[in-house]
Every structure is written in structure tokens, then in C-alpha cells.
Amino acid sequence: MKTLANQADREEILRRLATVRPESKRRWGKMSAQRMICHLTDSFRGVTGEKSLARMNIPLRGVVRWIALHTSVPWKKNLRTMPEMNQEIGGTPPTEFQKDVQELRRLFDKFTQQPRTFEWTPHPIFLQLTDEEWMIWGYRHMDHHLRQFGA
After folding, report:
1. How far apart, in Å, are the Cα atoms of 18 and each of 29, 37, 46?
2. Where are the domains of the chain?
3. The dihedral of CA 75, 122, 125, 100: what is its sign?
């Protein structure tokens, strides 16, 4: 299982992120490439305590968590995101593309930094995660959205 705890996996994600351009075309969903960058940034803000997140009530939370974090089953495409992660509703609006990418990189570094300088905020769907699960989630979430834009 790929994880942001592994340096090679972190480097891979950052190489792929560097290939995303404002004009990158999505393969699914409604977000533009820049809104995807801001969505990932808001996600890291939320779980590191820089942004408030609402808890989502979903059936079979434990099963969904296990499948999402402990199997190689691809994440479902076209799921609605939470209002505070949706750049058209309550998410951070895009500004200038390179500045938005720099902010994502800052939060990526904060998220992966050891020792950690923050306390995890419960994930809105999965709730409390172990450090190992957070690093898997971080990789899988970024991988999902980078694949959305062919990166």
C-alpha cells in the first residue's frame, strides 16, 4: 500500500503534482485543475486543524474506512464533496495557480513532517485514524485527484 510515510511515494506524488497545469483537463467530475488543488489544500487544512470540518453521517462507516484505507479498491469517482471542501460553496476559492500550488505544498509538508507539529482533527468520514492510516489517506486522496487530471 502506498503511503506518504514512504519517501519514494511522497516524491512520486510531488512529481505528479508538478505536471498539473491550469489547463489540465479532468477525466471525471466538475472541478477544474485549480479547484482540485484548492480542494486538496482544504482537505489538509481540515485534518491538521487549520479549517473546521463537519462530521458526515454515513452508513457502514467502519467498512467504508477499511475498504478506502486498507485495500487497493479504487475510490469511487464523482462523489459529492463536503460544502467546506467545495470551492463553489465553502471551500477556499482559487487565486493564482502557482500560489495555490505553493500553499498545497506547504500543507503537504506540514502533513508529512516528523515529528508532527499539530494534533490530527478527526476525518469527517473515517473519524479517528492512526498515523499510518493518515499517511495512506493522504496518498490515496492525492492519487485519486491527480488521476482525475491525468497526472
Report:
1. 21, 11, 23
2. 7-148
3. negative
